[in-house]
Amino acid sequence: MPLITRAARIAGMDPELEAFVPLLPHVDLNDPVAARRAFAAAAATAPVPETTDLAIEDRTVPADPDVPVRIYRQHDARGAIIWLHGGGWVMGDLDTEHPWAIRLALGSNAVVISVGCRLAPEDPFPAALDDAYAVLRWAAANAAELGLDPERIAVGGHSSGGNLAAAVALRARDEQGPPIRFQLLNQPALDDRQQTWSARNFTDTPWANREMIAAAWRNYLGAEPAAPYAAPARAADLSGLPPAYIASAEFCPDRDEDIEYALRLLQAGVPVELHQWAGTFHGSQAILSAEVSRRQIAELGEVLRRALAG
């Protein structure tokens, strides 16, 4: 397969998704302020589901600094997920993730604790990881007050949020932190080296291309060399981690690192469900007019429901 460029039609892309490619906003992560504005504007166009069946509460988790969270609870849900938004570690917040956190809560009957992590480059690694880990520890320590079962807490996220979730799982294992029931990793960014076949060949795929991903890693890592908690694919030992669901998008530079991470988890004895979504690109599940996107969103909820079953 030749290098994929945006100038050419991508053979095999889902036609409902392909129709939206010309409408995707341009985001330059070398200009974080402008990128955040463009990302927020795009996120504001996502339809917000009806929230009648949810209790939604904004809280602040005591840490250094404190971490804002938004908690979504349906009925008598006791299983929970610490949920990390995407945006290349540079973009996104509780508001941009709001429609997707609602969908996850409704689809899973889990308590979704959406985390407003600090953003790079102002706060590079390990700031966002420290925030996410602080929320995990807070949720476990305050499970009774929050109405949670401390044995049924998962971590998960989209893209860079999937990176943070995988890193939280590694850190909790290494530090004998709170038990994590499950990892829900949707198109996670796991490897800063960008040497897989998909990373080398998908240079100008829709939304996330090689340059965008390289800029995201530069912002996140700052001047520090990548360590396993920053890039989980660098971890030598994946044994003892929670069971995982990993979803990858076919036309995404991160595709092969996601698949390789799933294989390594399996080889380390960790149960994994891997779904490689044909015809999709990074983040395309947000295009809800496409049938494949609706199936992706529904599957995330159903997988989490099964994983947190009492």
Automatic annotation (TrEMBL):
Query: Which keywords has UniProt assigned to this entry?
Result: Hydrolase
**Domain named Alpha/beta hydrolase fold-3: residues:** 81-284
Question: Is Hydrolase given among the entry's keywords?
Answer: yes
Say if the entry is tagged with keyword Cell membrane: no
Record's superkingdom? Answer: Bacteria
A GO molecular function assigned to this protein is: hydrolase activity
Enumerate the PANTHER family for this protein.
Answer: AB HYDROLASE SUPERFAMILY PROTEIN C4A8.06C (PTHR48081), ALPHA_BETA HYDROLASE FOLD-3 DOMAIN-CONTAINING PROTEIN-RELATED (PTHR48081:SF8)
The name on file for this protein is Alpha/beta hydrolase
Q: Please report the organism this UniProt entry assigns to the protein.
A: Natronosporangium hydrolyticum
